Amino acid sequence: MANQQGDLGAALEPVVRDAIGAAGFELEQLDVQRAGRRSLLKVVVDGETGIGLDEVADVSRTLASVLDEHDHVLGGPYTLEVTSPGLDRPLTKPRHWRRAWLRLVKVRTAGETFIGRVGEAADDEVQMLVGGQLRQVPYGQVDHAVIEVEFKQPPQEELALLGGGSQEGSS
């Protein structure tokens, strides 16, 4: 059964990716599960600057229409779940790091684990403020990184070091 699910996911992935791309977003993850005669498609969608609830709904409608055109691939009824990535999503791409600008992030490399504030994110590395010191962290050295939830405003001096200045009106 797992092989059939994998085959179905592989067959649907380009169709789903193209439909989401045409809507201006990116496919983060596609999971396909079979429950009897019904398929469950879980689709995680994101964009360069994130994705809002209204946009998730629009993508869901567009994707449902495209999937209906590919009913022969699905081979029966399906349930479609479209969502955005959660806060606990690992930072694996430069755009994830760009969206985490000024956020606190826990990073694990082969040699250490540390918490730092995210600065400018380039294509191959990210600037971080760690223990009051700025350092460049190449993505290739990061084994795992996730945003740490903060319950209070970050210190203005940390934000200033990273080019953040005042944080009024940001989320």
Automatic annotation (TrEMBL):
Keyword Transmembrane helix: no
Keyword flag Cytoplasm: yes
UniProt domain Ribosome maturation factor RimP C-terminal: residue ranges: 91-151
Keywords: Cytoplasm, Ribosome biogenesis
Chief location: cytoplasm
CDD domains with a match to the protein in the record: YlxS_C
Coiled-coil annotated spans: none
Gene this protein is translated from: rimP
PANTHER family named in the record: RIBOSOME MATURATION FACTOR RIMP
Protein name, per record: Ribosome maturation factor RimP
Family of the protein in this entry: Belongs to the RimP family.
Biological role: Required for maturation of 30S ribosomal subunits.
Matches recorded under InterPro entries: Ribosome_maturation_RimP (IPR003728), RimP_C (IPR028998), RimP_N (IPR028989), RimP_N_sf (IPR035956)
Subcellular location: Cytoplasm
Pfam family, one: RimP_N
Ribosome maturation factor RimP N-terminal domain residues: 16-88
Taxonomic source organism: Kibdelosporangium banguiense
